[in-house]
Design brief:
Layout: H1 2-32, E1 34-36, H2 45-53, E2 58-65, E3 75-79, E4 85-87, E5 91-97, E6 102-104, H3 113-122, E7 127-134, E8 141-145, E9 151-153, E10 158-164, E11 169-171, H4 180-189, E12 194-200, E13 209-212, E14 219-221, E15 226-232
Length: 233
């Protein structure tokens, strides 16, 4: 029976030690204070440090990691994880993105295309596209996207809208058999480019149109040249 007593006393000792340790740790934790770990993933590093310090916590960078989908200096992950109970004064270990870098877009509207391209190039911002739009300020950048003051990542670009002369269109009438003199006068009034070629056609009235390079009832632009073949002699 003596060995049973010894076993009993050993069990009692273990239980007493476990209970006393539990209460000692509980008292220690209450004295030190525990809080819920804040979620700082996705925040800029300085903002994350400010949030952590407000809860008596510290932030240390474990490493930087190249990430195209996370802006520069933003937190990718943290340890301990968010919403875990932690002691005040604890240090949070974070992984921070080292790219792509956010770039502030300069104002390049109301300037020439050359000025706009050089200004963007100085900041390593590519020109994504140049779109010509009808505007009185021909040759001037009339708009940009994104607008100035906005941020983009370093691999994105800017679209420039360049003022250009508005292109006019005309509906081609049926000129066959018409007088070249009258038609040419109308073309010059509307500033339409043309070229007249005369050919011999016995029996046909002189200075009348035989055919045109643009069919009737067809739309054509002002920069197109209308070729006219007429009766000469």
């Amino acid at each position: 029976m003596s060995w049973l007593k010894i076993l009993f006393y050993c069990c009692i000792s273990v239980v007493v030690f476990a209970v006393s340790s539990y209460f000692a740790m509980s008292i220690l934790l209450r004295e030190q204070g525990t809080i819920t770990c804040p979620d700082i993933v996705g925040k800029e590093l300085s903002d994350a440090k400010r949030l952590a310090h407000g809860k008596d916590l510290f932030v240390v960078i474990s490493k930087y990691e190249k990430r195209k989908d996370v802006p520069y200096n933003y937190i990718i992950s943290q340890r301990p994880e968010p919403n875990m109970p932690v002691r005040k004064g604890r240090t949070l270990s974070v992984i921070v993105s080292e790219g792509p870098l956010l770039i502030d877009i300069p104002l390049v509207t109301d300037h020439t295309l050359t000025y706009a391209e050089e200004t963007l190039k100085e900041r390593f911002i590519p020109v994504k596209q140049v779109i010509n739009v009808p505007d009185g300020s021909v040759g001037t950048v009339v708009a940009q996207a994104p607008k100035s003051g906005q941020n983009i990542v370093d691999e994105e670009g800017v679209t420039l809208f360049l003022g250009s002369k508005q292109r006019r269109f005309f509906l081609m009438p049926d000129l066959i058999g018409k007088s070249v003199v009258e038609v040419v006068s109308e073309l010059e009034t509307k500033q339409i480019k043309y070229n007249v070629t005369y050919v011999d056609k016995p029996g046909r009235p002189l200075k009348t149109i035989l055919e045109t390079s643009i069919p009737s009832r067809t739309l054509f632009g002002e920069d197109e040249i209308l070729e006219i073949k007429a009766v000469g002699g």
